[in-house]
Amino acid sequence: MAKEVTKDMYIGEVLKLDPGLAEILMQSGMHCLGCPSSQMESVEEAAMVHGFNADELVKKLNDYLKSAQ
Question: How crowded is the C-beta side of 52, counted as CA atoms within 13 Å?
Fold first, then answer.
């Protein structure tokens, strides 16, 4: 089964796919990946809170996953 990030996934789920995704999230302004609220916040919600485009972030995350295979 291929790994793929979607906007409705929780940040905690995304990090379980590949630890390398943390770097991309942090570059997007999400510096508190270990805090409890981030574990239950979707990619789309996090994008809204941090002021970035969720579709662009999902693309970056999935591009990383494809290149890591």
Answer: 19
